[in-house]
Specification:
This protein is 64% helix and 15% strand. The protein is an alpha+beta fold and 472 residues long. The radius of gyration is 44 Å and the shape is elongated.
């Protein structure tokens, strides 16, 4: 029981410390940002996580290039070590000392106790321990590539690799830009939608007020007042739904921009028919090279060509220069750095490695790289077809969207005129409540169709500009 109390006390203290630490942290004040679409894109390029990671890929490639460059530089390494032999290794070799001695005795004709000395048939072996208990070595080794075709090709491909990462980052940024353009201008269009709903609410409120007055004077039935009340409630509900949709749109825009959700954003750009139509279809000429995706494939093709070249160079011999300078010490006790000599060793060597047969591995690598290059060429051809298709579809969609927008705008203006005339006749007692109700329903439908066509035109323009590679 005491242990449980101790645990509860510890948990309580930890919670109090965490709450205290949180209380000490200053709360960040929500900020209000006023952005044009260009400023929103600039903010996103600095704060969107995908864009930041794409830019980090460029920096990662820079470090990879440094690794490739390092292979061409001299490599210098130093080492210092000591070795202790509890038992010095024993060397066993024929007893040449005894053999030499006997040879002298026999040659001199020396007599022993049993007559002249004779050469034995076996002299046995000598066992001797060569070396000391302690040894130490300090050395420095230098290695330098004199020729390696693969390293040289890697050096040539460094800039192409950096350009590839740059273009890839631009593709990522462009995709974010497209989404920001669409959401930004959709939110701009939503202002028109809210204004239309507010205008309808004002009209319906006026109609409700007039209907009540006419009902009080006995000119209309109670049903007319109830219908106006229902219409007003429906419009207010519609406004609430649209406002929630707009709020979600702002949340999505802030997420794309990498902006804290607690902050607020004010959109400063506007959208007019002139701005929507300006210069989009002036000259439908486009170049494949203007598309970021095509630029990425062009650099991928260049890197594939470097890859083929690298594997071809693997057939060439490689040459390396190496040199080692060392100091060696030998002691019977661990007094290596006190007294005694250090013996110098120094060697310089050149090594040439000539590939003779590798089981056709190099040939397989070259063929594989050529197939990868062919895949890239196929991707480029397919992308050209895709770009042609994107431009044609986007152009047709934009033309149709503009025609539809013009038609819906005229229809909306006409519906508003019909409503105003019907309302005057209703106020004069020359039309029924059903007619004014139908006129208002037609006006709301026309306004909804106009707003929808305006949305479609905005999206179609952005898609067309993106398809032609001219997104600002």
């Amino acid at each position: 029981m005491r242990e449980v109390r101790k645990i509860n006390l510890i948990v309580t203290m930890m919670l109090m410390l965490c709450i205290g630490a949180m209380a000490q942290q200053p709360a960040q004040t929500p900020q209000i940002h006023s952005f044009s679409v260009k400023e929103a894109i600039d903010y996103a390029t600095k704060n969107n996580a995908q864009v930041k990671n794409a830019l980090l890929d460029y920096k990662i490639q820079e470090q990879t290039n440094r690794q490739i460059t390092a292979a061409a530089y001299p490599q210098l390494n130093g080492s210092l070590g000591t070795t202790y032999f509890p038992d010095v290794p024993v060397q066993v070799f024929p007893n040449f000392i005894a053999a030499g001695t006997y040879r002298v005795l026999v040659d001199e004709g020396v007599n022993g106790s049993n007559g002249p000395v004779k050469m034995p048939s076996d002299f046995g072996y000598i066992q001797a321990a060569f070396g000391t208990k302690w040894s130490a070595t300090a050395s420095a080794t230098l290695n330098q590539i004199l020729f390696d075709g693969q390293v040289f090709v890697g050096l040539q491909a460094r800039q192409a690799a950096l350009d590839y990462e740059t273009r890839y980052a631009e593709v990522t940024t462009e995709n974010i830009k497209v989404n920001i353009y669409k959401i930004y201008y959709q939110l701009i269009v939503s202002k028109t939608q809210i204004a239309q709903i507010d205008a309808n609410i004002d009209r319906t409120s006026k109609l409700l007020s007039d209907s009540k007055a006419m009902f009080d004077n006995g000119f209309v039935e109670r049903l007319d007042v109830d219908k106006a009340t229902v219409q007003l409630a429906n419009l207010q509900t519609q406004k609430l739904k649209v406002e929630r949709t707009i709020d979600n749109g702002y949340t999505g825009l802030k997420f794309l921009m990498g902006m804290p959700i607690r902050d607020s954003i004010i959109l400063t750009d506007d959208l007019t028919d002139e701005k929507l139509r300006s210069g989009v279809l002036e000259g439908s000429n486009y170049k494949y090279e203007d598309r970021k995706e095509y630029q990425v494939l062009e650099l991928a093709k260049e890197l594939n060509e470097f890859n083929i070249k690298r594997y071809k160079y693997s057939y060439f011999p490689t040459a390396n220069l190496s040199s080692t300078f060392s100091k060696n010490a030998y002691r019977d006790q661990f007094n290596i750095f006190k007294k005694g000599d250090w013996y110098t060793g120094w060697n310089i060597g050149v090594n040439v490695s000539v590939p003779i047969f590798d089981g056709f591995a190099k040939a397989a690598n070259i063929q594989k790289a050529k197939l990868q290059l062919e895949q890239t060429n196929n991707q480029m051809d397919n992308l050209k077809l895709s770009i042609d298709n994107d431009v044609a579809v986007a152009q047709n969609n934009f033309k149709a969207a503009i025609i539809t927008l013009d038609y819906q705008k005229k229809n909306m203006d006409l519906a508003e005129q019909v409503y105003n005339q019907t309302k005057k006749k209703y106020e004069m007692g020359l039309s029924s409540n059903l007619e004014i109700t139908n006129a208002q329903a037609d006006l709301i439908t026309a306004q909804s169709n106009y707003t929808s066509s305006l949305y479609d035109a905005v999206i179609a323009k952005i898609d067309y500009v993106k398809a032609t590679g001219k997104l600002p």
